[in-house]
Specification:
Elements lengths: L1 H15 L6 H10 L3 H9 L1 H9 L1 H8 L2 H7 L5 H22 L14 H11 L9 H8 L5 H24 L4 H5 L2 H4 L5 H17 L11 H18 L3
Helix pairs in contact: 1-3, 1-13, 3-4, 5-14, 7-8, 7-9, 10-13, 10-14
């Protein structure tokens, strides 16, 4: 039994190493062919695969937000980059604050540290943080009404760390981003390892939120979609 568990976990870890391509490209490829490796990945990692599939549209909508489009294209200007950092700092202040006291035991509270990096970048650029509006705090608080929903929110936050590595590479020659990039740099080369660690606790912890209560797994994609939508709306609200 232990051997089977180890094998499943190893398969899950290898699945996390797969390149994170654009959702449209993956969707078109799936239409043409589903490889044996992909079939194994789905069996070994059902919760993550469900989240990926069921949040595809909301993730794509987020990526179309103007600030993210500019950052992803490597063309963001310094004033717009300041706006982006301010908005992300406020978002994390609201969401991280809402998650405090609700985190599952398997997830380290120290991981909610993105606000510190964002504040550091803003300080480097001589830009103040922005007040967190009460409506954003209320919306963030409503994202995670249950232990299962917390996992859905964490899936988005941890996935964003992974995606930031692509943003960092695409802005390697952007003078604005090069001035202050602690947030999008994150853990740098260790990001993939942190993501794989999260994949393990997600698969195990989301199935059984604690030893007494079984999760409503449908709450995970619902919370993840709401998190993507909240962030997209918040970034689009930037003047």
């Amino acid at each position: 039994m232990a051997g089977a568990t180890s094998a499943s976990r190893l398969q899950a870890w290898f699945s996390c190493l797969a390149p994170q391509r654009g959702y449209s490209a993956r969707r078109n490829e799936r239409k043409r062919h589903v490889s044996p490796v992909a079939e194994v990945e789905v069996r070994a990692w059902p919760i993550r695969q469900t989240l990926r599939a069921e949040t595809q549209e909301s993730h794509e909508r987020l990526e179309r937000a103007a600030l993210l489009t500019e950052l992803s294209g490597g063309s963001i200007t310094l004033p717009r980059y300041r706006h982006y950092l301010q908005r992300m700092h406020a978002f994390h202040a609201a969401v991280d604050g809402a998650l405090m006291g609700r985190l599952p035991p398997a997830y380290a509270v120290a991981r909610l540290n993105q606000g510190t990096r964002l504040a550091s970048d803003l300080h480097t650029l001589g830009t103040p943080t922005m007040p967190v509006p009460p409506p954003l705090c209320r919306a963030a608080d409503a994202l995670a009404p249950s232990p299962a929903a917390v996992w859905g929110v964490l899936y988005v936050l941890e996935g964003a760390r992974l995606g930031s590595q692509l943003l960092l590479r695409r802005n390697a020659a952007n003078a604005a981003v090069c001035q202050a990039h602690a947030y999008i740099q994150g853990e740098g080369e260790r990001t993939g390892s942190f993501w794989r660690d999260f994949c393990v606790v997600l698969e195990e912890g989301a199935t059984l939120c604690d030893r007494q209560a079984v999760c409503d797994l449908q709450a995970l994609p619902v919370a993840a979609n709401r998190t993507f939508s909240l962030l997209g709306d918040w970034l689009e609200d930037c003047p």
